[in-house]
Design brief:
The chain is mainly alpha-helical and 154 residues long. 57% of the residues lie in helices and 0% in strands.
């Protein structure tokens, strides 16, 4: 009986350890070096967005490849740089539409659908009739998409 109780307790403890494991982080750096990782992401993002060469030593000239903290910094830098440089290389469409994937572009596309529909039904160009289809904060993008597509389909 004593063995079965110990087995049950061991199983309960193992389950609790699984449920209460430390949260995962953006990298394998752990909580001790998370600040170095985040600093690397921020520095990399700044360099990538401005089109500078990928060079983490620009910000930390004394980087040590054998230091876990510095390895985390470099890992974060590469992530930040890659994301920002990819965003900087995105080209906006030739019709002046907002960047694909953004909220602004979603409202632009909704306006385009409404404008296309109205033009095909020979309705006047009045995006306001669709005021229940957009958030007022994004009205300019909805209107821009509506007018561009209405004109194309008229």
């Amino acid at each position: 009986m004593r063995t079965s109780i110990l087995g049950v307790l061991a199983a309960i403890l193992a389950g609790m350890a699984f449920c209460f494991a430390a949260p995962t982080h953006a990298s394998n750096c752990g909580i001790d070096h998370q600040k170095a990782y985040e600093a690397g992401v921020n520095d990399g993002r700044a360099d990538g967005a401005s089109g500078m060469k990928e060079k983490p030593k620009r910000h930390r000239p004394n980087l040590d490849k054998n230091s876990n903290k510095d390895q985390c910094y470099v890992e974060g830098y590469k992530i930040g740089y890659g994301n920002a440089s990819a965003d900087a290389k995105k080209e906006s469409s030739d019709d002046g539409a907002p960047t694909p994937g953004s909220n602004e572009r979603a409202y632009y596309d909704d306006g385009c659908k409404a404008g296309t529909s109205d033009a095909k039904l020979s309705m006047s160009m009045a995006y306001e009739r669709h005021s229940d289809s957009y958030d007022r904060r994004f009205e300019p993008y909805f209107a821009q998409g509506y007018e561009a597509c209405w004109k194309k389909n008229r």
